[in-house]
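Take a sample.
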Amino acid sequence: MSQQESRHRLAIYPGSFDPVTNGHLDIARRAARLFDELIVAVYAFPDKNLLFTVDERVVLWQEVLTKEGLNNVRVEKYTGLTSEYARTVGGQAIIKGLRSPNDFDAEFRQGLMNRKLAPEIETVCLLTNLEQLFVSSSLLKEVARLGGDVTDMLPGSVAQALQHKLGQTNPV
């Protein structure tokens, strides 16, 4: 067996995950099948209006992954450049989920920048499942705030956490 064949394949799945959706979980499941190990890398300080703290987002992911039994996936929080974080942990790939042409455009530009900064790390894009095509954390938070039911688009523990965070007594 060559050195290349015996190399531990580690991928990073970065994002803000505010909150974790079934779409995020689907991408993590699929990436976990492709790599020996996957790190769900929760970005601590995205330029977004966050509902959950970074520690809460990490815990939500851990709960979801425990329930799923994805033993080759772990969750870590990080700051700074994704490419530098991936390099620091020994990652060979950065996983990105694509839902739309807009996602492709943004991820394409980001992937090229990551390639410039860390040419040894590949960007791997996975297409979303059709049932998750329109789902985004931002949209789900907005719908939930307005009283809409989003429980079928979130893992169970995440739906409960969102309901609690929004101070709702009715199902999210």
